[in-house]
């Protein structure tokens, strides 16, 4: 076996399958595109769904990749096991209806054992097969595998539910008994058993069945090959490492962390090693996720990033690292991965800033967490218990980032234990909530062979003309291909078409189809791409249409031109946002409609009104500069050299279209655009908001819609001027400011009168002190405006020491009640709490509330219950003496 670096191992894999006719795909971003079933890209095949379910047919049916992936479902295992990671790379080769078992098995064996490639010792390789898949077993023997090295295993069947499924073969590498954690004669010491000797390095799935919705299986119309080989564990084999962490993928990070630590070294103490491993693992995920557009937040992907950062910081503290340090590891990750992912180093400054800001924020939060920890320990001891409850331990873990093992350490220092069962119960409840919130869409669709098999050539000519003749090639109705149709809904493919198929955020064209006499025979309502790339027209048929005949296809020009203006405006907006917010900002989605545009983009914080105004001004300046918009068709590398902005989430072919607005904006784009920015006329932002973790959304209008929007705003302003009896609209702001000042003065006067009225009422209610058991109580309904006045009365009561307990209520509306309870300091020391009292009487007025031991408040919806609530409150006080 050769001595290889991780970069060499990755490249050799890709080179091998490239030599077998595979296209090498660049690793897709970790944030899935158009897949609600996934929070992250979690495997190599996750990026191949559209090919395997037949919704898209790739140009080359042989594909290979090294796909970065994230899985955090059992994050607690990281650092404690030899090969568990949150971020990993999956090497894979894929056949979409092309080669099958013979080639997949032969090539796997060649890559692993050939002297030209990995040169592994065949005697160290073992294979498992599905018992019913005797074909694979025969092929493994045929390529040279020792029959005694082939094992049958019932679980060798890959099935994730509805969609493609099939038997698989796993390949194991024998690392030798010296690496084993079991005795050689242990029942689990075999390939596929729970042991450290036989390491699974590759899984080859023979996807040959459709798992149907009714849980039956039928042969796939097009059989596929899907393989996965974890780079990290493969590197551990080549580098003779006991775990994945003692490899060139992790050791530079571990060594750098040791420099920051308080004298700790890796490999000296197993407990300390866990912290080194967690930090090295987590910073890889953090770096790549932020580089792909995720930001730390309180939900979704952002929550995962925040949690990883906090776990790593806490483990840093266990190594004696008090200050922010994670951000300093970002360039180390970039250098390790530079050969395959140069963009990490290119974005290092941005990623570092995000990580450092979050570290600093967490260090502040940590103070609160430490205080809560102290309270938990004290409360547990005060109650005479020896175990801290699982629920607050989970809160420490979930809210403050305390690993449960750290809480256990603090507890142990105080002779306490942690309720692990309660903690796990809360953890499971959170997982259940997350699972319930996730889309229930299946991971992959069932193959539709009909559209996949239609390979009729079809050309899009809409860049040059919005009217064209085309021969009707295919008529598809309800899953069948017909020769003719007289009415109803159908999907049509023509030899050529001017209709744009929805793509890249631009909506599809609509229009009509005419026959040779000029009669409108169909109305085009939508156009999408068929699996083999043809424009698939969804139509409402009005008159007979026959396959093989020629028709006139006419796009709705007025609608199309409005879409063009909005599309070009999104390009100008994209660049303007970069100019104002920074180069870290990039497009996260768009929608180009005839009447408006929507543009999603990444940004760490809110966008100020001033920044929005700047962006809007820049876009309009570019419109008024009459900039020519040009399109260049060129190869991918030339386009990149031109400086064209590419969406990292998109896959581009060898030939690409670059749309340029002079020297200002230059982007990869297959959509339709104006010839000159002046055609857009006017650009107006109508809203800006946050839509998710680190993602903002702008909605805007152009041309006529922008004018109509501004005209509407002007009409509204004129109406206000008339109502305010002002001659000129420009004087409206000053008049409004004057009115607001008057309102504020009147509010102050009202507040003063209400306070005076409340004080007058107080003189009366303070005289009515009741006895309730051993306590004195004031319980009364007062006529004040709300909770503020009740609190003022409570302040007076407290200052004058009128009674032990205070219960006040007021009717604050037809269906609104405010309640307040208070206890004197002496009463609180006797064990009575205002919060307990309010919880007992609030339901009587149809509400609920809480508060401190000395003061609590509540709201309700049943004013009729006030009298009974006061009565019950006094009774509750009396009962506390018993």
UniProtKB/TrEMBL annotation:
Any Gene Ontology biological process: alanyl-tRNA aminoacylation
Enzyme class: ligase
Localization per Swiss-Prot or TrEMBL: Cytoplasm
Superkingdom per UniProt: Bacteria
Annotated Pfam families: DHHA1 (PF02272), tRNA-synt_2c (PF01411), tRNA_SAD (PF07973)
A Gene Ontology term for the protein's cellular component: cytosol
Documented EC number(s): 6.1.1.7
Cofactor: Zn(2+)
Binding positions for Zn(2+) per the UniProt entry: 567, 571, 669, 673
NCBIfam families: alaS
PANTHER family xrefs: ALANINE--TRNA LIGASE, CYTOPLASMIC (PTHR11777:SF9), ALANYL-TRNA SYNTHETASE (PTHR11777)
Domain comment, as recorded: Consists of three domains; the N-terminal catalytic domain, the editing domain and the C-terminal C-Ala domain. The editing domain removes incorrectly charged amino acids, while the C-Ala domain, along with tRNA(Ala), serves as a bridge to cooperatively bring together the editing and aminoacylation centers thus stimulating deacylation of misacylated tRNAs.
Protein name: Alanine--tRNA ligase
Species whose genome carries this gene: Ligilactobacillus pobuzihii
Organism lineage: Bacteria, Bacillati, Bacillota, Bacilli, Lactobacillales
């Amino acid at each position: 076996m050769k001595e290889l670096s991780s970069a060499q191992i990755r490249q050799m894999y890709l080179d091998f399958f490239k030599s077998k006719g595979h296209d090498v795909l660049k690793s897709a971003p970790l944030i899935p595109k158009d897949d609600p079933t996934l929070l992250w890209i979690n495997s190599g095949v996750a990026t191949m769904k559209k090919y395997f379910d037949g919704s898209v047919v790739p140009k080359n049916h042989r594909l290979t990749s090294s796909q970065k992936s994230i899985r955090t479902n059992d994050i607690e295992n990281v650092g404690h096991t030899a090969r568990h990671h949150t971020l990993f790379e999956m090497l894979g080769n894929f056949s979409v209806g092309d080669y099958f078992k013979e080639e997949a098995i032969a090539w796997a064996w060649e890559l692993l054992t050939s002297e030209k490639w990995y040169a592994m010792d065949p005697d160290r390789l073992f294979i498992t097969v599905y018992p019913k898949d005797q074909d694979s077993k025969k092929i493994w023997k045929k390529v040279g595998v020792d029959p005694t090295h082939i094992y049958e295993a019932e679980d060798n069947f890959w099935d994730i539910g509805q969609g493609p499924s099939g038997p698989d073969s796993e390949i194991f590498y024998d690392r030798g008994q010296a690496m084993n954690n079991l005795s050689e004669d242990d029942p689990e010491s075999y390939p596929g058993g729970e042991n450290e000797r036989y390491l699974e390095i590759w899984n080859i799935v023979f996807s040959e069945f459709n798992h149907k919705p009714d849980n039956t299986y039928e042969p796939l119309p097009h059989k596929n090959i899907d393989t996965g080989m974890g780079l990290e564990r493969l590197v551990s084999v080549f580098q003779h490492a006991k775990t994945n962490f003692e490899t060139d993928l992790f050791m530079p990070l571990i060594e750098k962390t040791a420099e920051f630590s308080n004298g700790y070294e890796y490999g000296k103490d197993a407990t300390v090693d866990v912290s080194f491993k967690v930090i090295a693992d987590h910073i890889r995920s953090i770096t790549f996720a932020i580089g792909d557009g995720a930001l730390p937040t309180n939900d979704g992907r952002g929550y995962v990033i925040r949690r990883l950062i906090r776990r790593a910081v806490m483990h840093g503290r266990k190594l004696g690292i008090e200050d922010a340090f994670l951000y300093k590891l970002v360039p180390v990750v970039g250098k390790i991965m530079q050969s395959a992912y140069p963009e990490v180093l290119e974005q290092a400054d941005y990623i570092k800033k995000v990580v450092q800001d979050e570290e600093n924020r967490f260090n502040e939060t940590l103070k609160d967490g430490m205080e809560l920890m102290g309270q938990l320990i004290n409360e547990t001891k005060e109650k005479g218990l020896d175990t801290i409850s699982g629920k607050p331990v989970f809160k420490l873990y979930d809210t403050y980032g305390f690993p449960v093992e750290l809480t256990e350490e603090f507890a142990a220092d105080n002779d306490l234990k942690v309720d692990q069962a309660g903690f796990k119960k809360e953890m499971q409840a959170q997982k259940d909530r997350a699972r319930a919130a996730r889309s229930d869409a299946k991971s992959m669709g069932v193959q539709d062979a009909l559209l996949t098999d239609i390979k009729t050539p079809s050309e899009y000519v809409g860049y040059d003309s919005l009217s064209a003749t085309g021969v009707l090639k295919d008529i598809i109705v309800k899953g069948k291909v017909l020769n003719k149709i007289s009415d109803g809904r159908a999907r049509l493919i023509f030899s050529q078409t001017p209709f744009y198929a929805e793509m890249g955020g631009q909506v599809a064209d609509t229009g009509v189809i005419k026959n040779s006499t000029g009669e409108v025979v169909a109305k085009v309502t939508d156009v999408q791409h068929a699996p083999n790339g043809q424009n698939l027209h969804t139509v409402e048929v009005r008159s007979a249409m026959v396959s093989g005949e020629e028709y006139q296809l006419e796009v709705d020009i007025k609608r199309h031109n409005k879409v063009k203006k909005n599309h070009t405006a999104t390009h100008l907006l994209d660049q303007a946002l970069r100019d104002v917010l920074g180069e870290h900002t990039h497009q996260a989605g768009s929608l180009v409609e005839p009447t408006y545009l929507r543009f999603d983009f990444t940004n760490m914080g809110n966008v100020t009104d001033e920044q929005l105004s700047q962006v809007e001004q820049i876009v309009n300046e570019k419109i008024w500069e009459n900039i020519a918009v040009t399109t260049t068709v060129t190869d991918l590398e030339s386009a990149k050299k031109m400086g064209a902005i590419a969406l990292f989430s998109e896959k581009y072919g060898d030939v690409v279209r670059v749309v340029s607005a002079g020297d200002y904006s230059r982007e990869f784009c297959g959509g339709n655009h104006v010839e000159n920015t002046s055609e857009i006329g006017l650009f107006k932002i109508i809203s800006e908001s946050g839509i998710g973790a680190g993602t903002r959304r702008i909605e805007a209008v152009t041309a006529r819609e922008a004018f109509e929007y501004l005209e509407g705003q002007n009409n509204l302003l004129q109406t206000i001027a008339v109502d305010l009896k002002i001659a000129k609209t420009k004087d409206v702001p000053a008049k409004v400011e004057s009115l607001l000042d008057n309102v504020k003065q009147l509010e102050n006067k009202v507040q003063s009168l209400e306070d005076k009225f409340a004080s007058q009422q107080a003189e009366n209610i303070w005289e009515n002190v009741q006895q309730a058991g051993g306590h004195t109580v004031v319980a009364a309904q007062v006529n004040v405006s709300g909770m503020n006045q009740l609190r003022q009365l409570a302040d007076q009561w407290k200052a004058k020491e009128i009674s032990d307990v205070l219960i006040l209520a007021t009717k604050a509306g037809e269906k609104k009640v405010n309640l307040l309870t208070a206890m004197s300091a002496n009463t609180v020391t006797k064990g009575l709490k205002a919060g307990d009292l309010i919880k007992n009487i609030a339901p009587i007025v149809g509400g609920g509330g809480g508060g401190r031991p000395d003061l609590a408040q509540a709201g309700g919806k049943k004013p009729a219950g006030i009298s009974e609530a006061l009565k019950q409150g006094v009774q509750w006080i009396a009962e506390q003496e018993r």
